[in-house]
Amino acid sequence: MKRENLFAALEIGSSKIAASLSERKIDGDLEVLGFASEEFSGARGGRILNLETVAEIIRRIIGRVEMAAGIRCPPFRVSMSSAESRIERSNGIATVAGGRDQGSREVGLPDIKRVIEMANSVSLSRDEVILHSLPLRFLIDKVEVEEPLGAAGVRLEAEVCLVIHKISVLNSMKKVLLKAQVQIEDLTLQTLACAQGVLSEEEKKTGTLLVDIGGNISDYMVFSKGGVVTSGYIDLGSLYITKDLAYGLKTTLAHAEEIKKRFGSALILKSSAHEFITAPLVAYQQSTRVSKRLLAEIIEPRVKEILSLIKAKLDSSELDQRWLEGGIVFTGGGCMLLHIVDLAYDVFQRPARIGLPLRTTSVYKDFHSPRFAVLSGLSQLSALAYQYENPETPLDSLSEAEQLHRQQNIRSLSSHGSFSKMTSYLKNFFR
Ligand SMILES: Nc1ncnc2c1ncn2[C@@H]1O[C@H](COP(=O)(O)OP(=O)(O)O)[C@@H](O)[C@H]1O
Ligand SMILES: [Mg+2]
């Protein structure tokens, strides 16, 4: 097992912390070697509240991952909540550095990095930093090219999508990771990791709304033509439904959570008024009988509220509503609620589906779930980033199996379009 084929991922969600260690197989897919997750309640709007507790959970989880995998984890790619981040588009222009033969200038990696740096020079407030710079389009001598690397020309232009984040939020993440003694490979916006985890290339191109419903937060991002169109979040997640259910049924949060997961539905119309469940009451240790229809009557308005708030945010952005051709893809534990896809159709008038981790195999049954879309995407991005940063190892110095491996990865890299060229400028920020 080679260390360069191992990728570690850590998600500090709004209600759980999860980590995984994956190995890249010869076909380019990832296999999860170790995986652990634990619930917690220490984050509000993307900020971590109780550093000490969170650091302790992180240490415990990583210990479990390493125990399961039987090896130590390499540095982690860690997800950042999209709360308090913003998106901006920008352009950069650079002259292709000439080689000895000025007549046949070829675009090299340094040229691409330079033009992206140019596009990154936007004005930021004092508490802001560029978390990601995602190239959307490259033009050489005013002609759009699919792959600029190695192309001939003089003037290189890049259009990028910048993800700008709050330094204070990143600093609190840095503090907790330091406390937990976690080595960082990089930080990645959660919704981007999610998209890498579950969206097909087709969906990123056609215009798709990705909605991640977590415990306390729901994040969304719209993709079109391989790039990000808009993104945002609302301060409500699936726990909002649990709280309402607990209130409505006069039961505890723990019971309401269990009832939501086992018997809840997001659609009143599809819930039977003749099937009953027993819910324990908080007081007097009594219980009550309620129909599944009644549960849905409490749940549906809450889910509708979450989806309608997202729709209202999209409506108020300058987005052209025709983008939604790819429909809606849900991730996060909150989307595991029965019939949420049907309700989404009612709200958005577009087809929806549940996003499951792609290109990832695992002996851990639980992993194959929309809850772990972020972890899966983080590892996939690490694998792509490694490939992009290390293209220069000559193929003939590798064994035959490794050559095949490398060629396949390069192929899959190029088919990932602009996502593979994702660059994070935070590496220096953390040194
Ligand atoms: N089977 C299920 N049905 C409905 N809701 C679920 C189910 N499983 C988990 N959830 C809900 O998902 C939420 C957690 O989602 P998750 O994506 O893990 O959160 P986060 O990443 O924000 O910490 C919880 O509120 C939980 O109630
Ligand atoms: Mg999450």
Task: Give a description of the structure.
This protein has about 425 residues and is an alpha/beta fold. Among the domains are: about 85-165, 2-Layer Sandwich (Dna Ligase, domain 1), CATH 3.30.1490.110; about 200-355, ATPase, nucleotide binding domain (Nucleotidyltransferase, domain 5). The protein is built from twelve helices and 20 strands. Helix 4 (about 190-200) packs across helix 10 and helix 6 packs antiparallel against helix 8. The longest helix has 25 residues, at about 290-315. Residues about 410-420 and about 425-430 have low confidence and may be disordered. The structure holds adenosine-5'-diphosphate (ADP) and magnesium ion (MG).
Fold blueprint:
Blueprint: E1 6-12, E2 16-24, E3 30-39, E4 43-44, E5 47-48, H1 51-69, E6 76-80, E7 86-95, H2 109-119, E8 128-140, E9 143-145, E10 155-166, H3 167-179, E11 184-189, H4 190-198, H5 201-206, E12 208-213, E13 218-224, E14 227-234, H6 238-249, H7 253-263, E15 276-280, E16 287-291, H8 292-316, E17 327-331, H9 340-348, E18 352-354, E19 360-362, H10 373-389, H11 400-414, E20 423-424, H12 426-429
Parallel strand pairs: 1-6, 3-19, 6-11, 12-17, 17-18
Antiparallel strand pairs: 1-2, 2-3, 4-5, 7-10, 8-9, 8-10, 8-20, 12-13, 13-14, 15-16
The structure holds adenosine-5'-diphosphate and magnesium ion.
